[in-house]
Amino acid sequence: xxxxxxxxxxxxxxxxxxxxxxxxxxxxxxxxxxxxxxxxxxxxxxxxxxxxxxxxxxxxxxxxxxxxxxxxxxxxxxxxxxxxxxxxxxxxxxxxxxxxxxxxxxxxxxxxxxxxxxxxxxxxxxxxxxxxxxxxxxxxxxxxxxxxxxxxxxxxxxxxxxxxxxxxxxxxxxxxxxxxxxxxxxxxxxxxxxxxxxxxxxxxxxxxxxxxxxxxxxxxxxxxxxxxxxxxxxxxxxxxxxxxxxxxxxxxxxxxxxxxxxxxxxxxxxxxxxxxxxxxxxxxxxxxxxxxxxxxxxxxxxxxxxxxxxxxxxxxxxxxxxxxxxxxxxxxxxxxxxxxxxxxxxxxxxxxxxxxxxxxxxxxxxxxxxxxxxxxxxxxxxxxxxxxxxxxxxxxxxxxxxxxxxxxxxxxxx
Length: 414
Description:
Layout: E1 2-6, E2 11-14, E3 20-23, H1 25-33, H2 46-55, H3 65-87, H4 92-97, H5 108-129, H6 142-154, H7 177-187, H8 198-217, H9 229-237, H10 241-249, H11 251-257, E4 273-282, H12 283-289, H13 298-304, E5 308-316, E6 322-328, H14 343-354, E7 361-364, H15 371-381, E8 398-402, E9 407-411
Parallel strand pairs: 4-7
Antiparallel strand pairs: 1-2, 2-3, 4-5, 5-6, 7-9, 8-9
Helix pairs in contact: 3-5, 7-8, 7-12, 10-11, 14-15
């Protein structure tokens, strides 16, 4: 609510719908004492407007722990500088370090001298507060420190202004698992037989969030965040055309329409050809989608909340079954040709060996020559009485182009 008029009789406030309501000074005092009202001074000033536009309704608790910790560490650094600035060059630490500048300022030369001193003071103070554990970060440059100082002062000394909004590959998205679960539920409505538009699904989600937030606001629970329309449409597009066809027309229709083999290669038995592919996935999103997130403990959620890992999968072409799945920090298909020491490849050969299968080839989206490596590993896994003759691979392999990405399928020349 915004103050419209204030005099000796009371205060007139305007709500979000533009309606005016009058309150006496006694009512305002009682609501403040009971903590039913919070006063944001200078809310419509230029500085606060820019701050609200940047962070919206986000609180510092909505961010990842490592971002919050770094923001608070930078706040301690700035507060220590403010203390040095108030005392000036008579500060005992500056006198001990031989400070020779005319005054403490945000100049480049002064900050180059001050920043290492400020860091040592802050690190020592944080270590004492954390039981001797050292908490330290890379110092910002003098220019960046001056920018952080100005932003912190303009935001009325709110540490939220120092929290990074970076959302790159190594940072966690701002969506909460509960929000993501609700978003995925309504993104799946797009695959309905009635063929609703993305706009209809998005408006249904927004209406549902407004309804749930209205119920939660009275109980003090965390309110759901609304995704942008671009973010919501991205969730829909990531479902894939096969999933869309399977939901709208049935699994059999989708299999016929998007079959991997269209007569080019005749598959006679399971295990004849194995395909391998890899993706970089967000574990929190994957576990939420698989309905596993609610089963994890708090420590397990904290461990996987920011993790983005490479998922490598081996798939049997005949049965469309996943033979092996491996999580790792790095892309592994590029190093498969060096040797059979990868976990996914070991899982695959173990499975094939137990089924007494003999694979004739392996295909990966990178197009690497895996055939010789695969046969060597597989023949080591077969029982002695069932080992076949050595297969000639590599140079004499027949190569066939498949898919628009020029993926290569390698078959042996027996």
